[in-house]
């Protein structure tokens, strides 16, 4: 299908039942559908939204264009869960059906207020000349899951000297006030985070741009989040067009974090002595949303996908997925990420691993499975390689060098190539001559790799053949390994 503007913004009710059935048949025949990651029933999934705990359930929404693997007339799709692992689809929940969101319900967040969930999101509107108008909108969800939109915008227009790139409000409660952090762009094409304040969730005052210790953060900032991790404020955001001298990255746009010392939203100040970091060192993480859960944990979920990139699943009528739910911790001034404890509920059959290699390659697992968890500790000298999803020729390779202190994720021969203009490998520094702990979650066409208990994370899509199910380990010197392999259950009924 040739996706022109008219098709992308065609009213969802105007698609025929025959067209919808054809799309679902395409998806059913896709070779890369997932077992335990959230994926769209149809079409495109992108930013996670409204991640929250309300009415004794976890709630999560995601951006969805249900008619194809493209950015079109966006809706919010709703999921709920009792355990952060098994998610119940509630269907499309926020639709582009008012004058303030007629061309898409864009990203936002949610917060419980008494016996209802308050939702704040961006409404996208285009006029006949395709000029954009961005509105920050509100809605309430009751305990029965019924959502009612507010009739007028909470914030009807961006401030002076800002363009129509004004979106993705994150709402937080702080010192008896509500604050909204909104991604924005100045007319001089500089990315900012704007701070708004409200006492009643109805009337919002513009406090100004958030003052950061870093300057020149690209031409636009998307998906700003402030959370507290071990009593420290952490800013998570997506700067577009960020100077490589400020932070090295290879993806089209990075997803970054900055640990803070203090955060004062009334004075618009975020102070930090720390460096800016990539949140994920892999190929495909963006638009992470985090919040402080009532059980004391700081939880995060990410879009596994990137804007403006074509993926092999596109030909089957769907695109992208969400990450596992991750808990955030700070240790020695560094942000750690690891899957929530509840992820262990997916575990099935267990295989213990233990062995020694000397200048050889060895098949260590051949389970013919594409959904598994592998935790393995490697101790050795020299170099080595862990071949995931291998058929003996094609593989997703983890190449480690104990002497140099590097680990490389190489997907150049992992299956169908894509996004090669942004490189086919990613490199992470690891402690030299020290055991390496790898915690790997494989799911058909996505891998999440947690290094050294979550000190670094590499998340990536790849698209293997059906024969790529073996795991090999090799070394050019001496290598000891031990760990566990678990087959993982599907969350799909």
Structure description:
This protein is mostly beta strands. The protein is built from two helices and 36 strands. The strands form eight sheets. It has a six-stranded antiparallel sheet with strand order 25-36-27-32-33-34, with no helix packed on it. The protein has a six-stranded antiparallel sheet with strand order 26-35-28-29-30-31, with no helix packed on it. A five-stranded mixed sheet has the order 4-3-2-1-21, with no helix packed on it. The longest helix has 12 residues, at 17-28. The model has no long low-confidence stretch (mean pLDDT 97).
Tell me the Rg in angstroms: 23 Å
Main β sheet profile: 6 strands, antiparallel
Based on Cα principal axes, name the global outline.
globular
The helix tally amounts to 2
- The percent range for strand residues is over 45%
- The overall strand count is 36
What gap, in angstroms, lies between the N and C termini? 30 Å
Supply the helix-strand structural class: mainly beta
Q: How are the strands of the largest sheet arranged?
A: 25-36-27-32-33-34
Low-confidence stretches: none
**Whole-number mean pLDDT:** 97
Helix amount, in percent? under 10%
């Amino acid at each position: 299908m040739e996706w022109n503007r008219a098709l992308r913004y065609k009213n969802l009710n105007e698609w025929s039942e025959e067209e919808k059935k054809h799309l679902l048949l395409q998806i059913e025949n896709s070779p890369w559908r997932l077992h335990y990651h959230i994926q769209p029933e149809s079409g495109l999934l992108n930013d996670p939204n409204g991640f929250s705990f309300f009415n004794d359930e976890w709630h999560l929404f995601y951006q969805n264009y249900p008619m194809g693997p493209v950015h079109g007339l966006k809706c919010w799709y709703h999921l709920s869960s009792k355990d952060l692992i098994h998610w119940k689809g509630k269907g499309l929940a926020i639709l582009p059906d008012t004058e303030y969101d007629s061309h898409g319900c864009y990203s936002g967040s949610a917060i419980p207020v008494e016996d209802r969930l308050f939702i704040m999101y961006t409404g996208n509107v285009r006029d006949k000349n395709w000029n954009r108008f961005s509105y920050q909108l509100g809605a309430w969800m009751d305990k029965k899951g019924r959502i009612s939109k507010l009739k007028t915008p909470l914030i009807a227009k961006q401030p002076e000297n800002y363009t129509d790139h004004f979106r993705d409000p994150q709402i937080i409660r702080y010192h008896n006030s509500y604050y909204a952090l909104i991604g924005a762009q100045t007319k001089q094409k500089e990315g900012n985070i704007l701070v708004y304040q409200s006492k009643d969730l109805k009337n919002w005052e513009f406090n100004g741009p958030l003052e950061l210790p870093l300057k020149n953060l690209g031409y636009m900032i998307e998906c700003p989040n402030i959370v507290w991790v071990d009593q420290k404020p952490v800013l998570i955001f997506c700067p577009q067009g960020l100077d490589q001298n400020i932070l090295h990255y290879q993806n089209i746009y990075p997803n970054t974090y900055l640990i803070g010392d203090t955060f004062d939203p009334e004075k618009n100040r975020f102070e930090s002595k720390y460096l800016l970091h990539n949140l994920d060192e892999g190929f495909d993480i963006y638009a992470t949303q985090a919040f402080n859960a009532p059980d004391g944990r700081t939880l995060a979920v990410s879009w596994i996908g990137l804007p403006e990139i074509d993926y092999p699943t596109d030909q089957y009528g769907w695109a992208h997925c969400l990450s596992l739910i991750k808990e955030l911790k700070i240790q020695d001034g560094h942000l750690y990420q690891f899957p929530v404890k509840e992820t262990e509920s997916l575990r099935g059959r267990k295989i213990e691993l233990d062995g020694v290699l000397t200048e050889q390659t060895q098949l260590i697992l051949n389970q013919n499975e594409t959904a598994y968890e592998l935790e393995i500790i490697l101790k050795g000298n020299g170099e080595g390689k862990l071949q995931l999803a291998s058929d003996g020729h094609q593989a997703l390779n983890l190449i480690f060098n104990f002497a140099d202190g590097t680990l490389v994720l190489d997907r150049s021969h992992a299956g169908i190539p894509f996004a090669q203009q942004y490189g086919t490998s990613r490199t992470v520094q690891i402690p030299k001559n020290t055991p390496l702990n790898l915690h790997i979650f494989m799911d058909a066409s996505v891998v999440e790799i947690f290094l050294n208990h979550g000190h670094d994370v590499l998340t990536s899509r790849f698209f293997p053949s059906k024969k790529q199910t073996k795991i090999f380990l090799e070394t050019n010197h001496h290598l000891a390994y031990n760990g566990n392999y678990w087959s993982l259950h599907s969350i799909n009924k």
